[in-house]
Specification:
alpha/beta; three-stranded parallel beta sheet; 11% strand; 4 helices; 127 residues; flat; two-stranded antiparallel sheet
Length: 127
């Protein structure tokens, strides 16, 4: 209908302030890699652990700013958070700004439980 009326089709702008809430065993690593490629191609900054360890922000979360790299100059913020961490919305907003979009993946609970049970080899622990 846009072309019949000679109107321009609607356009959208990519969001570059993004917190991906990574949940275990939901396919999050695939989405994380897609978002990282998106950010790298646009030269965006990522909230990362100082050792660049994918799980470095988990389980202590973001409560220790000295473990987050790269430090941003005053008035600047990071663009994307994609790693496992403890959900702390006020800290996410502090690192990314209040305009950040929050995204996650949910999985049917029993399927997620079975996947985690197998992945962490709980059958050997609980035999």
């Amino acid at each position: 209908s846009f072309h019949r009326n000679h109107e321009k089709p609607p356009t959208c702008q990519p969001k570059t302030k993004l917190a991906f809430i990574k949940v275990h065993k939901t396919g999050g690593s695939t989405i994380m890699q897609i978002l990282q490629r998106f950010g790298y191609l646009r030269k965006l900054s990522f909230v990362q652990h100082i050792n660049h360890d994918v799980n470095g922000l988990y389980h202590r979360g973001l409560s220790h700013p000295d473990t987050i790299t790269p430090p941003q100059p005053p008035g600047k913020s990071h663009d994307i958070l994609t790693y496992h961490t403890v959900y702390d919305r006020p800290m996410f907003v502090k690192l990314l700004t209040s305009d950040a979009k929050f995204v996650t993946i949910l999985r049917e609970p029993f399927a997620q439980f079975k996947s985690a049970f197998n992945y962490y080899r709980y059958n050997k622990i609980f035999n």
